Amino acid sequence: MEARINYIGTSVGSKLVKHINGASKAIADSSLPAATLELVKIRASQINGCAYCLDMHTKDAAQAGETPLRLNLVAAWREATVFTAAERAALELTEQGTRLADASTGVPDEVWANAAEHYDEEQLAALISMIALINAYNRLNVITQLPAGDYHPGQWS
């Protein structure tokens, strides 16, 4: 399988990805735990069916020390006992923020309140920014059918 287009090989695509990567770096430099950021990227990518992002973020998370058990249970986080209350709040916010079209009122107040119980304003800003960014990446990769399986941890560092 080949991608429909070499998106980052275009002038527009390379400029956009440069800016998105800069935004991603700002989020990574926040006080939001790196493990939480990876869980968010993985869960949104599962929902959106982005194989490339799943390949990338599961490998990066494993390289950073995430356990296979937790990686395998992200899709079933509600029933899994391996996630903290804060991580569960982040995963719920991720799902609601990714599935905006499924709810006419957007993210429910109780989901936001739960996240706000576990994260301060800076961390919430990082969390919602990562949800938005990973959804953008997912859409770019799904639309272009970027194939998965060949990513190596740190490849884009």
UniProtKB/TrEMBL annotation:
This is Carboxymuconolactone decarboxylase family protein. Signal peptide: none annotated. PANTHER family: 4-CARBOXYMUCONOLACTONE DECARBOXYLASE FAMILY PROTEIN (AFU_ORTHOLOGUE AFUA_6G11590) (PTHR34846), BLL7811 PROTEIN (PTHR34846:SF7). It holds the Pfam family CMD. NCBIfam families: ahpD_dom. Residues 25-95 form the Carboxymuconolactone decarboxylase-like domain. Transmembrane segments: none annotated. It comes from Actinomadura yumaensis. SUPFAM superfamilies: AhpD-like.
